[in-house]
Amino acid sequence: MKASVERLRWVLAGGAVLLLVVLAVFLGYGRYRALRTWRDIVRRSGAHITHETDGFTYSQSLKGRTIFTLHAAKGIPHGDGKWSLHDGVLTLYGKTPADFDRIYGADFEYDEKTQIVQALGEVHIDVQAPGALAAGGKTPAANAPKPPATPSDGKSGGNDHIIHVRTSGLSYNRAEGIATTDQEVEFRYAGLQCLAKGAIFNSDESMLHLLADVRLTGDIRGEPMTVHAVKADLNRESDTVALVQPVARTQGRTARAASALLHLRKDGSISQAEADGNVAFDEGTRHLTAPHLEATFNTASLPQTTKLTGGVVLWDDDAQQPMHGKANEVDTSFNALGAPTNIVATGAAQVALSDHKGSGPALSREMRGDRIVATLVPIGHKTVSRLSQVVATGSAMARGDSPVAPSAGHPQTQEIKSTMITADNLRADLEPGASQKAELRKVFGTGHARLQQDAPLGEQQTSTSDTIDIAFASQPTKSGGMATGITSAVQNGHVVIHSVPALRAGAAKPEPPSDASANNAVYDGATSKLTLTGSAHYTQGDTQLTAATIVANQTTGDADAQGNVLATLLGAETSATAQATHVTADHAHLVQASQAADFYGNEAHPARLWQGASQVEAATLQFDQKQKTLAARPASAGGLVHAVFANANPSQAKGKTASSGEGQVVRVASPAMDYSDIAREATFSGGVHIDGATGQARSQKAVVFLNPAVSSKAAPGAAKPAGPTNLLGGSVEKVVLSEAVRIDQPGRAGTGEQLVYTTADSSYILTGTPAKPPHIADVKQGNVTGATLLFRSDDSTIIVTGAPPGPAQKHGRVRTETEVRQ
């Protein structure tokens, strides 16, 4: 379009010079005076000519400089003020001998009464182009060529400084100052040709009107170019050219509008241009429309700025790469070579494109904003540019697709992941890829930033933050093309993340969603790991996790926490007595697939688990939420696991009388603890030390049995709901100690191989072996031995069942009861 407008300007400027000459000199008063002077000269010479004169030449000078030269092969007076000239040639000179124009034709008629000059047949005019056209604005040299003795052949092919005009039926009314023709007008210059049907020149208004069917044809860089308009008007005083319904075509491009107005400089170059009504640009399958266009040009008539207003629409009908965009206004800036450097789209600006190449799925891109600014970098010295940066402000949004590996269930299908970024402001940086096309490399967003990624099989991740910084890299698609995928994402300030995992193969239902929050978040696309820092919080299924740093694998759902770890285990139970389980540790590791959670500390600062008043402390706590087990281990061989079991006392809270076991606390220390929530058993081994309100006990092994934690809403006999809500919670049913048991109570000590403590009645059953029967030493009662010793902590009664076996009687049936006096 640039080249077409430039050539059109040349032709119209030349046309203006042409008709001005016709008006002011050839058809004006100067010509009339020349004819009278020629006739007077003939009369004074004494010759008598009644019909015709041959070989007439006349020239006129002013201050020693020739102004014009008139030559006619024949001049014929017809009387009554009418004249005919045959083969007339008028040469008009400018300020230098090299500055001249030439007008010539076969026959002319002039009527002195009506002051009308009529050209009979064709009229040819050779006009030197303005300086800006002929010599780039330079003044012609002193030794420039003199006017030829004979007129041009009308082609001006040998002189690129000449504009040639041809028309016929030209009529000039000297009284009105108007020259008209209804015949075809032809302009020729530098290989370009312009045709129009009819023309009017008004000398008073300095207006040239090309009346209809204005056509410009020629070559641009070896490619054909055409410009067509319904009509054209050139104003010499305002140096403007108005076109009605112009259509320009060159190099596969078409530009059109209902009307256009060109503003010319004094040297003939275009300074500004305006187009109104259905402004459209087409190139192949690409189209651009707008109601109004304003443009500015440099002295070389190359565009410097363009402004499209009133609702701009851009689209591409390409079947493989369709595109659509729109905005209320679009402003474009260009460099000195006419290459675009900056594009600003304002007012509901948006652009979307798709890639349907190959057999894979379509990949799409989209960007929106109240204002979109695109920065372009010219490629070399060409007039084409490469997109380098796009900035969207005001409710900005960018969305794009990227390929992912085919799923196991659909190995032949190329899956895609959709990524959408929104923010108050977005900046996208692009760099040339392998094909030198602009490829997305970074996106930076500020203010209410939001990132959403949707993957096949229902996987989705949504995150919000104050700022977001995303890096992209090219990825090959199955069809052989390239698409961009996220390599890293950095979010800062009030980060909140929600993730929905994909449905795993063979799984009846998807894994539970996860939620995270932190001051900062960093995502690594190569490992799919999300690192949260600063008040980091992470929720995965029934587990809530806070720490200084949390690293979550977005593919597997696994998580690692470091520094001041606090975990909360929530179950599915809804009973009034259900309580959450809490864990503190130095660091932790969670595995989503196996639902395992490991918490780590050290001997000085062990990991700690508690629910209500019950708790466990150890260097390592290992949960298996599928099997509902807990393993506690020390950090070294000499370390211990500490557990506290506190029986709740709900009956007292309701005004009921508490049972003897309610409100008791059992403390256990051991090198190892293994708990099964299904069996409701905590097993301690390797040497156990139990400390309770009624004394202390030691053994090599101990098992703490907990009462079932049944929901208050569950029907009697119903299965216990899944979940670790009451892990280690609930009341202690009994404690069983075995192997080298020793019990110490105030004023009483006992030994045996097994001790069973029942919390319901605070009773103890101490047993032994034939070799080592149970034995109790009481400060008041003395020593008591039997097969089974039964006593309670709340009285002084000891029940002995069976005498200790001896050599003559292995199975005694003696039952002895001893009453201890107070």
TrEMBL record:
<dbReference type="GO" id="GO:0030288">
    <property type="term" value="C:outer membrane-bounded periplasmic space"/>
</dbReference>
<dbReference type="GO" id="GO:0009279">
    <property type="term" value="C:cell outer membrane"/>
</dbReference>
<feature type="transmembrane region" description="Helical">
    <location>
        <begin position="12"/>
        <end position="32"/>
    </location>
</feature>
<keyword id="KW-1133">Transmembrane helix</keyword>
<keyword id="KW-0472">Membrane</keyword>
<feature type="domain" description="Organic solvent tolerance-like N-terminal">
    <location>
        <begin position="511"/>
        <end position="557"/>
    </location>
</feature>
<dbReference type="InterPro" id="IPR052037">
    <property type="entry name" value="LPS_export_LptA"/>
</dbReference>
<keyword id="KW-0732">Signal</keyword>
<dbReference type="GO" id="GO:0017089">
    <property type="term" value="F:glycolipid transfer activity"/>
</dbReference>
<keyword id="KW-0812">Transmembrane</keyword>
<feature type="region of interest" description="Disordered">
    <location>
        <begin position="802"/>
        <end position="822"/>
    </location>
</feature>
<feature type="region of interest" description="Disordered">
    <location>
        <begin position="134"/>
        <end position="160"/>
    </location>
</feature>
<dbReference type="InterPro" id="IPR005653">
    <property type="entry name" value="OstA-like_N"/>
</dbReference>
<dbReference type="InterPro" id="IPR010664">
    <property type="entry name" value="LipoPS_assembly_LptC-rel"/>
</dbReference>
<protein>
    <submittedName>
        <fullName>OstA family protein</fullName>
    </submittedName>
</protein>
<dbReference type="Pfam" id="PF03968">
    <property type="entry name" value="LptD_N"/>
</dbReference>
<dbReference type="GO" id="GO:0015920">
    <property type="term" value="P:lipopolysaccharide transport"/>
</dbReference>
<dbReference type="Pfam" id="PF06835">
    <property type="entry name" value="LptC"/>
</dbReference>
<feature type="compositionally biased region" description="Low complexity">
    <location>
        <begin position="134"/>
        <end position="144"/>
    </location>
</feature>
